[in-house]
Amino acid sequence: MTETWLSDPVTDRVLVFPGYRLLRRDRPAQPGRNDSRQRGGGVAILYRDNLNVTVLNITSVGAACESLWASVAGKGHRSTTVGVVYRPPSQSMSDGLSDLYNQLHASLSIGKPTFCLGDLNIDLLRQDGPGVRRYLSILNDLSLYQLIKTPTHLSPSETLLDHIITNVPDLETSIQVPSEPIADHLTIIVRAPFRRLRHRPSPFSMRPWRKTNWDALCLQLLLADWDPVYREVGIDRKVAE
User: Fold this and answer.
1) Which of 76, 79, 198, 237 gets the most CB atoms within 10 Å of its CB?
2) Read out DSSP for 101-141?
3) What pLDDT does residue 75 have?
4) What is the pLDDT of residues 60-81, one digit of tens each?
């Protein structure tokens, strides 16, 4: 859940119904305000109480992204890494994407199936929109999939701001975006099995470097036009260019 708007006076017992528990990270206090808090923000994870859940030490740098990460496991199943992230629109897009990259990289280093859900305020219906190109490049570089393809925020115009990011392939058919809103944003749903993550082998090409003239190679690299490489998105397209 993103934008919970929760604060210290609101206790968990008034929020959670039987059979569930709540992890939450409220927006921290903002110095200089009379109420000592900043309105809005906050993230939380609601989960069944028969799951084994442990908070992970993956934190946001500054206030670029508000986030909460946890290891989740059912009885007899391998654990899965689950995160919820909210990037406030008031925060720098560049700082937000750098923060998101660091968090995704840290979560993947755990080596488990990973799911990151949340409102990133990046509209994927606009391919030329702010931050979209760099965001897609980050996902490609980390071998991640973004599963939501339909609008998730309908007013005043349709936008795709709420994303599900994962390293588990072939989940497109398990995605749901119910059309009845319960808030400003539609709910996004993914149904995923707790299964062992298997890395699919992929072919690659290599060339021998034993007889390379390194001086000539360095000179060629210095004289080359690198602009087409910089413009491409993703390591494979950069190499092809």
Assistant:
1) 79
2) HHHHHHHHTT-S-EEEEEE----TT-TTSTTHHHHHHHHHH
3) 79
4) 777 789 999 999 998 777 899 9
Q: How far apart are CA 117 and CA 171, in angstroms?
A: 14
Contact yes or no for 165/48 (Cβ under 8 A) = no
Q: What gap in Å lies between CA 72 and CA 54, rounded to an integer? A: 7
Q: Could you give phi then psi for residue 28, rounded to 5 degrees?
A: -70, 165
The residues, any chain, with a CB within 8 Å of residue 31's CB and separated by 6 or more, are none
DSSP of 153-194? B-SSS-B--EEEEES--S-GGGEE--SS-SSSB---EE----
Do the beta carbons of residue 234 and residue 140 sit within 8 Å? Answer: yes
Side chain identity, residue 45? I
Position 28 scores a pLDDT of: 82
- How is residue 112 written in tokens? 């488990």
- Rounded to whole angstroms, the Cα distance separating 235 from 229 reads 9
Q: Which SS3 state, helix, strand or coil, does residue 73 take?
A: strand
Query: CB–CB of 145/169 below 8 Å?
Result: yes
The pLDDT tens digits for 225-238 are 988 888 887 787 88
What gap in Å lies between CA 124 and CA 146, rounded to an integer? 10
**CA distance from start to end of the chain:** 41
Report the C-alpha gap between 43 and 4 in whole angstroms: 6
